[in-house]
Amino acid sequence: MSTLEATQNAPLLTVDNLVVEYPSKKFRAKPFRALTDINITIGQGETLGLVGESGSGKTTLGRAVLGLAPVTGGRITFEGEDISHASRRQRRTLSRDLQVVFQDPYTSLNPALEIGDILAEPLGVQGMAQTAAKKRVKELLDQVGLPSDAIHRLPREFSGGQRQRVAIARALALSPKLIVCDEPVSALDLSTQARVLDLFLQIQKDTGVSYLFVSHDLDVVRHISHRVAVMYHGEIVEQGPAEVVTRDPEHPYTQRLLLASPVPDPDRQEQRRADRHRLLDIQRQQTEQAGALA
Questions:
Q1: What's the predicted TM-score (pTM) here?
Q2: Contact assessment for residue 238 and residue 231, using Cβ atoms and an 8 Å cutoff
Q3: Is the dihedral of CA 89, 66, 116, 208 positive or negative?
Q4: How many structural domains are present in the chain?
């Protein structure tokens, strides 16, 4: 294989043995370890779904990729370049290729700015001329399915789903190669969730962008992901093709997540609840036995 072919086939993002720790506020106390030995890769045009309960560490991993969480150990590589401890200047350059969509579309948008100004801001920071920026803003609104008159409206004039489309448009402004999506549909109702997920899929089809898609919902990651990594207490406990991990998981924690998803049939729901409690009892017994042996 030639050097060019190897570069083209190399993952877009690689996380090797990542450790994230936060210093304790208590005197001489050990730092809190949020992530332990995390290993993931994301290829060109691929979506990796990162799933787990609140506090599992999935958002911390996304923040570490974005440079918003301290990297204590291991390495994060983007397009072959180590970005584990990138400077502010390097991060500004990286922002062309690495963007984020946050959970709450309202708090992530400046309520005092019109939508046109919100979308033009990252373009101006990167030095794009005003005329070209206006043209790009119109293209972005069309890409996410918003009317052209949205340019002169404020975020409060839109619904939650429409505001999230604005946030997606802002992330797309610089034509990034990877977008970290941090629970981007969890604040939306089910019908709006489906439309926004379909929008993410269409954008990926049109542009080839990659996603690190963070969610607590296995149904959501099954719909949008090529591969899924399951996080539990700061570690990845299972990883593989989305169809396999979300329908026939091997790890007890992933099985519990699957059983926690509601189904419309009351009898099936009752059985799933009983199975979930059974798994919890088994895990509790295993933990107690391990503690006794220690």
A1: 0.86
A2: no
A3: positive
A4: 3
